[in-house]
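Quick start: what a row looks like.
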Amino acid sequence: GGYTMSNGDARWTISAESAIDAPLPTTRVVNMSDISTQLRELRAPGIECLFVYNCNPVATAPDQRGLIAELARADRFVVVHDQVMTDTAHLADVVLPATTFLEHRELRRGYGTMRLFDSPAVIAPVGEARSNNQLFGALLERLGLARSDDAVTDDALVERIYAASPNGERIRDEVRRYDIATPPEGDRPIPFVDVFPDTDDHKIHLVPAHLDREAAAVSEGLYGYRADPGTAEFPLALISPALATQISSTFGQLRTAPAAIELSLADAAARDIRDGDRVRVFNQHGEVHCLAKLDMHVREGVCVLAKGLWRKHTANGLTANALIPPTLADLGGQAAFNDARVQIAKL
């Protein structure tokens, strides 16, 4: 799916950013993978107000305990715009209801499919719910930041997106006629025949020099060897794959099953843990109380606690995110989820 969203974007030639028609702001950029530290330590100025939309950081960001503490502070104003009462929304001072995809127009490329959809709203917004466009448009008006030439309505934004593309007219007409559109290169573009990587020579670079230099500044380069970070105290590698019923933390409000840590038969026997036992999964960063699930398919030395779980799914209100190390990966600045090492013990 990610291939159609990157690597030259399957040559759709349209982008939501083209509707903004404004220069990039000069304000600070804060890494969301490091949000708890930034909230706690950033100064000149510090972050006094946090506006959260399109995400649920309490369920997705590292240092879960620290983030909960920062969001709960009396001297920080937290606003959450969401469709459901997420773990983050429960810590907000103000919760603004958001529309679902059924309540607003969406121009969207398929994830893993060579199709573009222009989907109209099929029901009116429920209650006081507003879309992102409506909400931020209203804030611009209230704050005196609106410009006379801004595209404000969904229809105006979509037309500006089409107008900015050399293929916009064709894509718009195709959507109007068939309800879907295909990329300019056709609905079945063949890599290295019809579409190519966006490198200068249109080839795949397995060891691009600039990335290798960037990685070498903080580690051993793109392909440097790193020893397993496990220790005698915390020997188990924690992995957190996605749940089939969720997209990261999305739809977690519908999940009722309690969280369970999956571990190998050998690791369970060494700790006198039986299927269904209440256990604590812990390391120097935090701990999670949940059920144990023995799985013959889990390799010895590895344990599995799904990502995207909400606080209600565990006995102590913390999830795998409380166990993630605070360090960032050497490229991209993303959270080092796969570096978590833990111990498990019966409660």
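That is the whole record. The mean pLDDT is 90. The first helix runs from residue 2 to 5.
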